[in-house]
Amino acid sequence: MFDTLIHYLQYPFVRYALIVGVLIALCSSLLGVTLVLKRFSFIGDGLSHVAFGAMAIAAVLNLTNQMLIVMPITVISAVLLLRTGQNAKIKGDAAIAMISVGALAFGYLLMNVFSTSSNLSGDVCSTLFGSTSMLTLSLTDVWVCTIISVIVVAVFLLFYNKIFAVTFDEGFALAVGTKAKRYNLLLAVIIAVVIVLAMKLVGSLMISALVIFPAVSAMRLFKSFRSVTVCSVVVSVICAVIGMLISILAGTPVGSTIVAVNVAAFFLCSMIGRLCRR
Amino acid sequence: MGKSETNGGTPAKGTAKEQPVMLSVSGLTLGYENRTIIEGLNFTVHEGDYLCVVGENGSGKSTLMKTLLGLQKPMGGSITFGEGLRKNEIGYLPQQTVVQRDFPASVREIVLSGCQSQGGWRPFYSKEQKQLAEKNMERMGIRDYAKRCYRELSGGQQQRVLLARALCATQKILLLDEPVAGLDPKVTAEMYELISRLNGEGITIIMISHDIAAAVCYADHILHIGKRIFFGTKEDYRNSDFGRLFLLQEGGENDV
Question: For the whole model, what pTM was predicted?
Answer without folding.
Answer: 0.83
